[in-house]
Amino acid sequence: MKVELIQVDREKCVKCGICADVCPIGIIHMKQEWPEQADPESCIACGHCVAACPHEALDNLRAPLSGQTVMAKFPAVPQEQAYQFLRSRRSIRNYEKRPVPREKLLQLLDIARYAPTASNFQSISYLVIEDPQILQRIRTLINTWMEEQLHLGSYWAQRYAGVLKRFEGTETDTVLRNAPCIIVAAAPKGLENGRDNAKFSLAYVELYAPAMGMGTCWAGLLQMCAFSGYKPLLELLNLPGDREFSGAIVAGYPKYRYNRLVDRNPLQVEFR
Ligand SMILES: Cc1cc2nc3c(=O)[nH]c(=O)nc-3n(C[C@H](O)[C@H](O)[C@H](O)COP(=O)(O)O)c2cc1C
Fold first, then answer.
1. What's the 21 CA to ligand 1 centre distance in angstroms?
2. 77-95 pLDDT, tens per residue?
3. Ligand 1: distance of its center to the CA of 110 in Å?
């Protein structure tokens, strides 16, 4: 039986063809005046056809109109505000000792679902590690791994050894920055672009966190260690069998507030 993927309300449709124009994989066409579907199995459920229709004339089984929120004002924030907002995100390396309630963490992670994924594949899942004992085991494992890397002459391990030395005898946690939790993103094993998808989703989390009074920092050492395939760490993380480690950040309540926006290297760009 043919699946009717799209439904067109002929009373509302003005045959403008926007739905066909915005479909990223070309399965909507206007050959017979009204929008029609071809190859519905290929629909990636991006919902563009429904969202771009100016007359609410189109519905799509895979991205129903009922699930889409009306947005009265676009863009949602004015340019200047967006600029300041993006510039004000910083890596947070000093956290208050209090844990983040799970309800808050769920709110924070929910934004990750809206990050772009290749072919709208989505499917990134998250592991939140809050248990202080597990966090401590991860720190120890990463330091052991780094020592091994140092013997192998790794540039990063040498830099890290310098950092470790400077903080020797202090309570500074150079691996996880004493954050109350780690957020690990996992993609389906072997999925092309899985790691990119996971990183973009964590970038959304990182940008959203300050709006919730929270802060984050990329767990770069943890990522390097996991991406290298270091078994003791992967075994400790124990991700579901069909998933692979694809990125990680730490998160918590920032101890300090920043009062200035820093400058960066000048923009390098070439036009051709
Ligand atoms: C892939 C990646 C890995 C990172 N790893 C670490 C890390 O392991 N520890 C850390 O303290 N900061 C880490 N950072 C944060 C960078 O040092 C930081 O983004 C940079 O200094 C710019 O500062 P800002 O994020 O506050 O603007 C990482 C950032 C990225 C993008």
1. 40
2. 999 999 999 999 999 999 9
3. 23
